[in-house]
Design brief:
six-stranded mixed β-sheet, alpha/beta, 2 domains, Glutathione S-transferase Yfyf (Class Pi), Chain A, domain 2, 24% strand
């Protein structure tokens, strides 16, 4: 799966651009604030309906405009082509696949797989478990069709239980404990099926990129030996005082440790970026192995925090992934480090995108 072209209209500083892409490496080179990242945002919009830089559409729409558009032709497995287009105006999202309107961003995600390595991707290691849970949930969403429905059911039941916990005169908790436990254990069962294999993929990549040994540990968020129903019952008094449910799949975490310490407290910033990039690439490659669908990998500001040796390791992992990669950088020499025979370079300045001819 790869993007044959990328059409951008009113995405931040880019008022209009039509970009012909290669199936391998595509490098967007230019000074800060030139619009490089906007090209990656457009690709991400086509998969999710939103930006990876801001949750608010108005931050992404070109100043003075009231809408943005992005479009592409996706070349899928066995050469099948699909046309995808999205338009955002305020909070409203309109999306089409092969001319047919789709109602949810989830449909877009199933048509186009995109993962992104952000400049500050180290926050995967430092910003708490929620961001790592989202990463794992993205994997489960793509490899198990029932996961999205089960996860939604669990979150709804959890919301009701939490509301009851905050009620001054709570009703009997048994009914909501049952619903939370049934949905939660179904979510946990799917994770248990796939997480060990995701960790295998991650271990393989991270060992190539980071010289220090990094141990991976998955925490379920509750005692799986006794079960979630028992955990909820045991934690009732504590949950009542806290005002929220303290046990369950919503508390799971993927921990990275070095020499018995949290990896982020030991690794340098460059090593932390490589470890975080490993997480992102591993999730995409696991989905590829399970479904046959190849993700598009976005790498924003690849050179940040990385010395030439580290960049070389990351490029090696990206070459081995055999995916389309879109990269931004302020460094033109990056083209030589990528794969010159299978790469395109684009110069971006003041919102204009021009292919650099070899």
């Amino acid at each position: 799966m790869y993007l044959e072209q990328l059409e951008v209209e009113n995405v931040r500083i880019i008022q209009t651009a039509r970009i012909s892409l290669t199936p391998r490496f595509n490098l967007f080179i230019g000074p800060n604030g030139s619009g490089k990242t906007s090209c990656l945002e457009a690709a991400y919009l086509l998969s999710t309906g939103k930006s990876f830089r801001s949750p608010r559409a108005r931050d992404v729409i070109t100043h003075g405009s009231d809408f943005l558009r992005a479009g592409t032709v996706v070349c899928g497995e066995e050469g099948r082509r699909h046309r995808i287009g999205v338009e955002r105006s305020g909070s409203a999202l309109r999306a089409r696949v092969d001319g047919q309107e789709v109602r949810t961003a989830a449909r877009l995600a199933r048509e186009l797989l995109v993962v992104v390595v952000e400049p500050d991707c180290q926050r995967l290691l430092t910003d708490g478990a929620e961001i790592r849970r989202r990463l794992l949930d993205w994997v489960m969403f793509h490899v198990e069709r029932d996961y999205s429905q089960l996860h939604t059911r669990y979150r709804r039941a959890l919301k009701q239980r939490n509301a009851m916990l905050r009620n001054e005169s709570p009703v009997d908790s048994a009914a909501w404990d049952t619903e939370v436990a049934e949905a939660g254990e179904a979510v946990a069962a799917i994770r248990d099926q796939h997480v060990p294999r995701v960790l295998e993929a991650l271990s393989s990549i991270i060992s190539e990129l980071v010289e220090r040994p990094i141990a991976l540990r998955f925490e379920h968020g509750f005692d799986t030996q006794t079960g979630l129903r028992a955990a909820l019952k045991q934690a009732w008094s504590r949950d009542r005082s806290l005002g929220y449910t303290s046990s369950g799949p919503h508390r799971c975490d993927l921990r990275l440790e070095t020499a018995g310490e949290s990896a982020h407290s030991v690794l340098s910033r460059g090593e932390g970026k490589l470890a975080a990039a490993s997480l992102v690439v591993a999730q995409g490659l696991y989905v590829k192995a399970r479904t046959g669908l190849t993700p598009v990998i976005l790498v924003d500001d690849l050179g940040a925090e990385l010395d030439p040796r580290s960049r070389g390791r990351l490029f090696g992992a990206l070459r081995d992934a055999q995916c389309q990669v879109l990269i931004t950088s302020v460094t033109p020499e990056l083209l030589l480090e990528a794969d010159p025979d299978h790469a395109k370079s684009f110069h971006v300045e003041r919102g204009r995108v021009e292919e650099v001819l070899k």
